[in-house]
Amino acid sequence: MNITVIGAGNSGLAMAAHLSKERNNVILWNRSKSTISKLIETQTIYCEGIINDQIKIDLVTDDIEKAVENPDVILITTPANSHKELAEQIAKVIKKETLIVLNPGRTFGALEFDATYRKHNQEVTQTIAETQTIIYTCRKTGEDSVNIISLKSGVLISTFNSSENKNIIMKLPECIQKYFIPARSMIETSIGNVGMILHCAPLLLNTGWTESESTIYKYYYDGITPTVGRLVERIDEERVAVSRELGLEVETTKEWLKRTYNINGNTLYECIQNNEAYKTIDAPCSLRHRYIFEDVPCGLVPLETIGKKLGLNMKNTSVIIDLASSLMDVDFRKVGRNLDYFHDSNSKSDFKNLFSRGNR
Description:
The chain is built from 19 helices and twelve strands. By secondary structure, it is of the alpha/beta class. It has two domains: 189 residues, NAD(P)-binding Rossmann-like Domain (Rossmann fold), CATH 3.40.50.720; 159 residues, Orthogonal Bundle (N-(1-d-carboxylethyl)-l-norvaline Dehydrogenase, domain 2). A hairpin with a 2-residue loop joins strand 9 and strand 10. Helix 9 packs antiparallel against helix 12. The chain is globular, with a radius of gyration of 19 Å. The two termini are 25 Å apart.
């Protein structure tokens, strides 16, 4: 199968290496040539962890036209705040109908990507899908190396027409099909975005520790204490309430952890402490990290916006957006995925229809 992996970060390296090892033809694209200069020369990714090998990639490039020349599937692994730009770039050069999957879409990712793509290309239609999260627990350890800690099971995936979700999985490379399950609706992948729950509040509440030059702490094990865990659960309750109002209640982050990692615990804090896959994950050394600059504008901001339009109390979500905006001196509500983008949607039924329409 011809696979194009977009993005050479943590997930992109893991996905490109895994798919290439399983004998797919893989093209790895990255916007910044300097980031992939060594990979362009060697075309080799060094893996450790559950995949321990030196894996050759067919092509590594920063040329988007070459990257999307003949893909069977395009797998986008970049941070969500680049989705809009990527949709425009791909739309302007692609000449083939294919499946494009955002891994993950975060909140409203597929909606934003689809609308932007169609704005720039109405001749070559695409099937756009999004996942709830990336299937890999991984960390990039160098320009050409990655530690693949684990592969998650039961990752939800959806396109706009949920009846097509089983077929979407069958269109993916065979070696990763078993890690996905069809979502009942895109509500489960978009409002089911647990990254914004696990990433934003803990990092912001550990600002002092994060910016310390003398300390490196484990993000989940050390950073999410019982008190932080309780606040995270309250933010999660607001997320679940939004999905309930839209007509399809998503699982809590605690339930997601139990299902994905096959662990137990009475609280979110206990589940995290019982998760072996989280033991080795260090915290970021700066707040200028995707946990803030992706998960606040592309996660919490659209969640708060839709929650308020539905008449819900989003006070805990709002506190974290306010804190992030104040600390980073960025108006995340202004730059994020707010529902002004979908200005024709004003009622609960309108919002539900956004997640259930078929691709055009």
